[in-house]
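Annotators were shown the component list below and the corresponding predicted structure, then asked to write short factual statements about the assembly.
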Amino acid sequence: MTITSTSSLPETTLKQGLLMSLAPVGRFLSELWRDKAGFAGFAFLVLLVLVALFAPLIAPHDPAAQSVMARLKPPVWMEGSVPGYLLGTDMLGRDILSRLLYGARSSLLVSVSVVALAGSFGVMAGLIAGYKGGLTDAVIMRIVDVQVAFPGLLLTLLLVAVIGPSTTTIIVVLAFSNWMIYTRVVRGIVMSLRQTPFIEAAEVVGCKSSRIIIKHILPNLIAPLLTLGILEFTNIILAEAALSFLGLGVQPPATSWGLDVAGGKNYMMIAWWPITFPGLAIAMTVLSINLFANWLRVTTEPAEREKRYARGRAAKMRRTKA
Amino acid sequence: MANAQPTPILEVRDLCVEFDTMAGLVQGLRGVSFSVLPGETMALVGESGSGKSVTAQAIMGLIGLPGRISSGDILWKGQSLLTREGQKAAGKLRGKSVSMVFQDPMTSLNPLMTIGAHLVEVLRRHMGLSKDKAFARGVDLLDAVGITEPKRRMGQYPHEFSGGMRQRVMIALAIACEPELLIADEPTTALDVTIQAQVLDLLADLQKSMGLSIVLITHDLGIVAGLCEKVAVMYAGSIVEAGAAETVFAHAEHPYTQGLIRSTPRLDDRRARLVSIDGAPPSLLHPPKGCAFQSRCPVASRQCDEKPARQATPEGGTVTCWTPSVAAWAEPVDRQAEV
Amino acid sequence: MTDQSNRFATDHPVAPEMPILSVRGLGVTFDGERERPFGPPKKIQALENITFDLARGKTLGLVGESGSGKSTLGRAILRRLPISDGRVIFDGKDISNVKGEALRRLTRDIQLIFQDPYTSLNPRMKVLELIAEPLLVHGIVSSIEEARDQVGELMRLVNLPLDALDRFPHGFSGGQRQRIGIARALALKPRLIIADEPVSALDVSVRAQVVNLMQDLQQELGLTYVFIAHDLSVVRHISHDIAILHRGHMVEMADRDAIYEAPEHPYTKVLLSAVPEPDPALRRNGDCAPEAHRPPELNLAGPGCRYRDCCDKSGGHCQREAPPFARHGGGHWAACWHVSTD
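Structure shown to annotators:
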């Protein structure tokens, strides 16, 4: 095993203190490494975040710079390509690679903000509904029901039409139509947690509701919420792409993968690259998130995690025997 | 167990089970050996974590990840169940000749199936009965386990039964295929005392009328006496003492057994204090090199740093201790060791 | 130390000094299913007309099987359940109707020990946090670290090693966890502790540890216990008086030796005969409880004794009228027509 044992306490405290700060990261990575698909997903996501952060430093061109002379040039490995334009150019002669890099920015910005916004609101509503119960619960859950029943896309279109399209709008609108799932999930968990003796034990010693929610209920929500949030991420990326594709999301001159797919659509028959690369970026991101979330779900469930570990050990043993 | 005896129906030889956990290798069973003769009832007694349930799971072939049988053997009428050919035979054996009753009957019954459907399915699959015959036999079985109006009850669902009734249904299911060995893992722990008494009586009756062998797994020595001829006491993954129930109760050799007997409350006991075995069992992640009971034993000496060997007792049982048959426990309250 | 029976001589329910807990005619009802949609829910009487007194420093054993209402009674005394009838008087104050902040303050005086030491400790809190939490939420300390000394003292009291403070509960055995639970209950220096089957989830071999510890603590700290149990096997050793509950009614109450040696109610006798005798040499042929085929629900409609369908003495009188919970000489109370009253 990688980390110190818990049994021998006094003499290892010094070393432990040092190790403690680094240990979780190493443990996380070494465990992730054993699941190759999950690791690949995680690696891609890390890359994506880095690219989004440092887009201005890596991008070879200005993503908005047009060049009438270099319209619809193919990627470098094809005939007729222009050097310097690695993935070719689109119908306005803009560098596709640079647009991809900047597009990652808006995709991530929108999804992170939406997940954070919808998540915190939804979790709060779920906590209150699940903990208070009774009328409060009934009111909150009916609001959730009504909003779930209302077609999400229609609502979004309506809101965008009223407020007018922009990146801020899209964040607000997507958050507004995606908070319900958190409420439902959180309420369900809180309801079952309320039945557990340790919550009663907290009430019996005189904890106030706020402490019970923050100290006793919330920590038990982190694992399921982490998985849910990451999976929701994919939904938001797709929704942002769809809205931008429809022209209701990110507005030019800003870039977005969805916007690029929309732009490339009309030239699909003569040039495959303007639509393929942003499409691929969306697909890869969603796939990576799913692979990583899959690993995370097992990891946050202690019994499943033990089983995965034992399976790995058993496989290793078979290999060494053979 | 040195004397020549008829072939045991079940024999467990030096069985070791390990669990591959992230914290390290946990030695769940550390060399368990015992045998059960036809028609015999044996109790496996121990605290939680002593390995008694793991033993049952190993016999039933239910050791799954992260556990595995690392050494030892399980023999059914002299045939190993762990060899490749044995494993095939074992699949047929389990569920038919060996069956099991669990602690919590609710989790082993399908809530969407009637009690009748459960019984009919088992009878058709293992006994090859026709639908009508299986139903008739199911009614007989419910009657046999003391359920009134068995015909009407056949059409009811598990949630319509009380805890005690469900455990009766589980027993009916377990004996449906006329098994030769029944393993009962804490069958009464979840039940009220009055119901517990009934279920134990039922098991004793079935044992007599069907000639069943029973392995009763429990942490409560109190329920052993009414049912079992033999007792094996488990501690930290191995059997520390085994023998006939009467002799083990009358002359417990191992300090742990003595402590168990003394700490079991008795109704006629007017003392205000119970004997208590202080401390907790050792972790099986890093089991002690010597005697596992050493840390809690009132008569432990330096000798106990080494592992004691199993030895026969004058009464025909076995004990694993350096100083067997020393009265280990002083009267309660005053617990200065008298050694 | 060996024979303490003279010290346990009490005259309950009417104690000479003011009892720390008095329960008078207590009733608790739950809402059952609605008989028709939107109709009023059916009332299920979980407890009816419970009356007893408990003197300071004593232990009342409360024994009953599942569905007897024993846990409900414990929760009703803690005021975690609404009371539909009667009163609960703690230390001379009627606490039947306390609410809100007053109810929260009541937790300083009345504490609960849980049945299951595995699920009643928050797995994400260290032992120090678990035991210091009551002190923190009542403002006795302002931070967990400030409580370290006090918690250490509590650990000593329940015989737990001090190095356990910074560990999480999952590394401990059932008995050790229950000690943590007890230390937590003791932190606020309560005067009354409700112990809801504190040893039922433990192995028989460690039950004695916990029971003995609770006795030591009672002597050392002058605690008063309500000790709830589902059978009669351990309560004798810790209780001064024992009350038997059956389907929400108290059917018998007496000092502990009277319950074991001269039980009056037929149900008490059944409970006694159901406790398994561990010694094969003394093994009695288990007389089975006659309650084998009782319906599972709590509600038993109609007048008459609630035990009538399970009782072999049941006669016409038992069908017509429920027997009162009456005193039968000394401190022995029972609800049965077949016991002579004085």
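Statements collected:
1. The first helix of chain B runs from residue 52 to 59.
2. Residues 333-339 of chain B have pLDDT under 50 and may be disordered.
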